[in-house]
């Protein structure tokens, strides 16, 4: 009886030969699982001194981006460099940068806060720091989101809160969430009782709060008192204001009553669709720093009241 052909052995042998050719770089070993493969090492060249300098410069430019934007926007606004093409700064920012007015205010307020932080981290307030991060121990914000929670604090508290957040972040730039938590802790420890009373007349202080845009310097009447804020009434509606954004006029009860009556009268006229110039006049009455109207103001307001009633 003839033996069957040894095809399986021949195939196995061929396969073995192929493995020997293909894996010529594998060190022979009794256990294939422990085979050693030689891999050529790739050497990564070190940065030259110029490259290291360029990298540091570019990193600082990235870190300064929002800060520089806020400083530039503030100068554009203060010098009214938009006036040749736009009537208002708000329209200019929307057309030129596609920025909402709130975002612009956040950037400007953020740049002010960074200046406060820089002043606190310098060894001397007279020391000029030309570039952010020139001091190795000076960790500064790299995003507007990181400084936004600090707007609720006074400048000195902003410095302390930022340094505490940097420490909790292990000496690195902290996240906006971490900064917010630190700010909340400080506010809880420095809680100030709300001493305002319903009917009290106060002045609204913006203090870099974009939500109070257009209300800076306006008088308001407290209508509801909370732990950290008050609901106040102005000539064109109600809004909630934090305690640090209010300043009492310290009017007598009779004077507060006079202001409330003036507020009612202005609100009634303001709610009607009158000319823009008339609305501007009414808004100017909303910024009076006295509890009465002059004779001329009284005559104009009475004329407007008779006009809408007729």
Please outline the major beta sheet. 5 strands, antiparallel
| Helix vs. strand class | alpha+beta
The proportion of residues forming helix, as a percent range, comes to: 40-55%
H/E element sequence? HHHHHHHEEEEEHHH
How many strand elements? 5
Radius of gyration, in Å, reads: 34 Å
Q: Total number of helical segments?
A: 10
End-to-end distance: 129 Å
Note the topology.
Elements: H1 7-22, H2 49-78, H3 89-97, H4 101-121, H5 144-147, H6 155-168, H7 176-189, E1 201-204, E2 219-225, E3 229-234, E4 237-242, E5 246-248, H8 253-270, H9 276-285, H10 295-309
Antiparallel strand pairs: 1-2, 1-5, 2-3, 3-4
Helix pairs in contact: 2-4, 4-6, 6-7, 8-10
Would you mind describing this structure in some detail?
The chain is built from ten helices and five strands; from the N terminus they run H-H-H-H-H-H-H-E-E-E-E-E-H-H-H. With 310 residues, it is α+β, with helices and mostly antiparallel strands. It folds into two domains: 55-123 and 137-189, no CATH class; 201-309, no CATH class. A five-stranded antiparallel sheet has the order 4-3-2-1-5, with helices on one face. A hairpin with a 2-residue loop joins strand 3 (229-234) and strand 4. Helix 6 packs across helix 7 and helix 8 (253-270) crosses helix 10. The longest helix has 30 residues, at 49-78. The chain is elongated, with a radius of gyration of 34 Å.
């Amino acid at each position: 009886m003839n033996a069957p052909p040894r095809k399986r052995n021949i195939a196995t042998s061929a396969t073995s030969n192929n493995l020997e050719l293909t894996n010529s770089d594998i060190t022979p070993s009794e256990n294939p699982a422990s085979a050693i493969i030689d891999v050529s090492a790739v050497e990564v060249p070190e940065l030259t001194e110029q490259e290291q300098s360029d990298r540091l410069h570019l990193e600082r430019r990235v870190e300064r981006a929002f800060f520089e934007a806020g400083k530039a926007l503030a100068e554009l606004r203060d010098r009214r460099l938009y006036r040749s093409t736009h009537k208002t700064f708000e329209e200019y920012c929307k057309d030129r940068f596609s920025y909402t007015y709130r975002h612009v205010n956040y950037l400007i307020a953020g740049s002010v806060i960074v200046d406060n932080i820089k002043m606190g981290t310098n060894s001397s307030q007279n020391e000029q720091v030309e570039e952010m991060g020139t001091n190795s121990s000076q960790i500064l914000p790299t995003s507007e989101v990181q400084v936004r929670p600090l707007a609720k604090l006074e400048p000195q508290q902003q410095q302390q809160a930022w340094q505490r957040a940097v420490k909790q972040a292990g000496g690195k730039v902290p996240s906006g969430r971490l900064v917010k938590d630190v700010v909340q802790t400080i506010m809880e420890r420095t809680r100030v009782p709300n001493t305002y009373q319903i009917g009290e007349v106060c002045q609204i202080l913006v203090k870099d709060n974009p939500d109070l845009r257009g209300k800076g310097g306006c008088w308001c009447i407290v209508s509801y008192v909370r732990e950290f804020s008050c609901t106040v009434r102005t000539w064109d509606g109600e809004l909630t204001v934090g305690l640090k954004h209010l300043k009492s006029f310290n009017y007598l009860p009779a004077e507060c009553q006079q202001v409330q009556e003036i507020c009612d009268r202005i609100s009634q006229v303001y709610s009607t669709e009158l000319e823009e110039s008339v609305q501007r006049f009414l808004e100017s009455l909303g910024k009076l720093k006295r509890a009465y109207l002059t004779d001329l103001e009284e005559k104009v307001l009475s004329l407007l009241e008779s006009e809408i009633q007729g």
